[in-house]
Design goal:
eight-stranded mixed β-sheet; binds zinc ion; globular; 11 helices; two-stranded antiparallel ribbon; alpha/beta; 281 residues; 10 strands; 2-enoyl-CoA Hydratase, Chain A, domain 1
């Protein structure tokens, strides 16, 4: 830290500083927001809330939420699950671990899904699966492309098999979007694991990832408990890119522009041939 930086730090209240988990430097909150919560010292991408992701991604004021009124769902009457769901709703301001809706990116109308790690680890239960499936199906009818920002610890343990059933359900809905000749762009963010990885996260026509995002089917805890032999770099965006599982690694500052280019290309190349053109808003 330079003398000027140290002096400036003393003038700003401590609560406005955040420590970077990557390089442990203290970063000024407003500057961190301006850089889309990417560390200016080491490039670490901080994890985002769904509302930060909305702000950083879509055209200002263009987001319209879908399925915001879905009720809590506790299919197995799992002990203390209802309370946990209600607490997660209060904490995050969303009704489940995914926010869905419509928005514009660079002026292009798009269906949007954003997963929220702060909501029970971004895990996928019935409501998450239902909201993602509805997003695909609605966009197939409206003839809209879909962008989903994935972030998940995997299946929702409190819903057991009901949670696992969301994998084929979301995969089938993604197929309906493909049959309607609409593009699906999946953006993998840190971390994306388990049932989400094994279903809609890796079904994108184009799969993007943020730098250094961790991803895989078995999360770090499962790897540890089962004593799997796996080098740590395997579960990273860079390794998956080198082995052909991901199309591009895109720094957060370039994501909006990259999505705009992809969506513009896709909408210009599918609208003429599509049988669903009359459904376009
Ligand atoms: Zn850093």
């Amino acid at each position: 830290m330079t003398e000027a930086e140290a002096k400036r730090m003393l003038e700003i209240p401590a609560e406005l500083w955040e420590e970077c988990p990557g390089c442990h430097q203290l970063l000024y909150g407003r500057e961190l927001e301006r850089s889309l919560r990417v560390c200016s010292k080491c490039g670490h991408h901080f994890r985002l809330s769904v509302w930060q992701r909305v702000n950083f991604t879509v055209d200002e004021g263009s987001f319209e939420e879908w399925d915001a009124d879905m009720p809590l769902y506790d299919p197995l009457s799992f002990p203390e699950y209802q309370e946990k769901l209600e607490a997660a709703r209060t904490k995050t301001g969303v009704n489940e671990a995914v926010l869905t809706g419509a928005a514009r990116i660079g002026g292009i109308a798009t269906g949007l899904g954003i997963m929220d790690l702060a909501f029970i680890g971004g895990s996928m239960g019935f409501v998450v699966g239902e909201k993602v499936a509805r997003l695909f199906e609605r966009c197939a009818l409206l003839h809209l492309p879909v962008v989903i920002f994935c972030a998940s610890g995997g299946a929702r343990m409190q819903e057991s098999l009901v949670s696992l059933m969301q994998m084929p359900k979301t995969a089938a809905a993604a197929r309906k979007l493909r049959e309607a000749r609409c593009l699906y762009v999946s953006v993998l963010t840190d971390p994306t694991y388990g049932g989400v990885t094994a279903s809609f996260a890796f079904l994108g026509d184009i799969i993007l990832a943020e730098p250094c995002a961790s991803m895989g089917f078995a999360g770090p805890r499962v790897v540890e408990v089962t004593k799997m032999r796996m080098p740590p770099e395997v579960q990273t965006a860079e390794f998956q890119y080198q082995h052909g599982m991901i199309d591009m690694i895109v720094p957060r500052q370039q994501l909006h522009e990259t999505l705009e280019v992809i969506l513009r290309w896709a909408t210009e190349h599918t609208s003429e041939a599509s049988p669903h053109q009359e459904g376009q808003p």
